Amino acid sequence: MIVCPNCNHQNPDGASQCEACYTPLPVTASCSNCGAAVQTDAAFCGQCGFNLRPGSIVPEVEVTVPSLSPVGPTVVSSPAPDLVPPDPLMAMEPLVTLNKGLNLEKTPASIPTIPDPPPSPSVPVTTESVATPVNISPTVPGPQPAGVAKTQLQQQSARLLHVQTNTPMELPHSLSVVHIGKPNDLVPPDIDVSGFANSEIVSRVHANLRVEGDACYLEDVGSSNGTYVNNTPLPKGNRHRLRPGDRISLGKGDLVTFLFQIS
Predict the structure, then answer these.
(1) Are 159 and 191 in contact (CB under 8 A)?
(2) Residue 38: count of CB within 10 angstroms of its CB
(3) CA 87 → CA 84, 90, 94, 149, 202, distances in Å?
(4) What predicted TM-score, i.e. pTM, was given to this entire model?
(5) Which residue has the higher pLDDT, 207 or 118?
(6) Are 247 and 257 in contact (CB under 8 A)?
(7) Nearest residue to 16 (alpha-carbon basis) of 238, 177, 228
(8) From CA 225, how far away is CA 201, in angstroms rounded?
(9) Which of 8, 54, 222, 229 is least surrounded, with the fewest CB atoms within 10 Å of its CB?
(10) Could you give the angle at the alpha carbon of 105 between the alpha carbons of 104 and 106, nearest 5°?
(11) Ramachandran region, residue 239 (left: φ > 0; alpha: ψ -120 to 50; beta: rest)
(12) pLDDT band for position 19 (cuts 50, 70, 90)
């Protein structure tokens, strides 16, 4: 996947522009070590860390390896600086207490005891504790509603409206890939346009609609006369994320045209 530097949208490998914001994508190449996709100006592979520029100098990290011999550990790196010894603990002076005869007497050091403050008269003090019952029964999940659509786009019932005849064509809810074209033995179309006028300019296997989550993408699969979105040609292999109101033309001349709608 190629991440768009403008909107962080993940695009498929080989795409030349972002599907979401149409920003030109950086040129990528394959890592010679692991084959992962990396930018052509990258110095290291983000997948395996391989040096993509053999002429550059890679800094070496020295480590200390413990030795199993009785002589001691083998030090490979430079020695660490000596640690500063901590300051000695201060000896506690004996506490001086006052006895009944006002005579000063030294006693061993002890931890002074602070008496508890008297309770506030406004707050009654009680010694009884109330046990609160705790519900430890497992939570039983509720039944899932039947017939829930897989994607939000399918719940909203996406369709294509044929502009020349004002004929709506609903997208099948059970398919994640909808084939557009004319009858053939290789890939039968899910949306057959052979009944419309000027359908001879449409290839038998012309374009696909891919439903992913709440988004729908249009891609040309190698048609003879091309696919256009809002009068802009869609390159083969590139995907365009459709938005309500987008104008889709199958072939040149805007003769077989559909509007993408969500109802």
Answers:
(1) no
(2) 22
(3) 9, 9, 21, 71, 88
(4) 0.43
(5) 207
(6) yes
(7) 238
(8) 7
(9) 54
(10) 130
(11) beta
(12) confident
Beta-carbon contacts of 247 under 8 Å, excluding residues fewer than 6 positions away, are 163, 229, 230, 231, 257, 258, 259
Scanning 82-223, the segments in alpha helix (DSSP H) are 152-155
How far is residue 182's CA from residue 160's CA, in Å, rounded to a whole number? 16
What the block records as the tokens of 117 is 């403050």
Tell me the average pLDDT across 187-203.
94
SS3 252: helix
Closest to 225 in 3D by CA, of 208, 247, 246, 200: 200
Inter-residue long-range contacts of 149-154, CB under 8 Å, 24+ positions, other chains counted: 149/173, 151/211, 151/212, 151/213, 151/214, 152/213, 152/214, 153/211, 153/213, 153/214, 153/215, 153/216, 153/262, 154/211
* Closest residue by Cα to residue 194 from 203, 151, 159: 203
**Percent of the chain topping pLDDT 70:** 60
- Residue 65 DSSP code: B
Q: Looking at residue 24, what DSSP letter applies? A: B
The torsion of the CA quartet 167, 247, 172, 200, rounded to 10 degrees, works out to 70
Size of the chain, expressed as the number of residues it contains: 263
CA-based angle 140:141:142, to the nearest 5?
Answer: 115
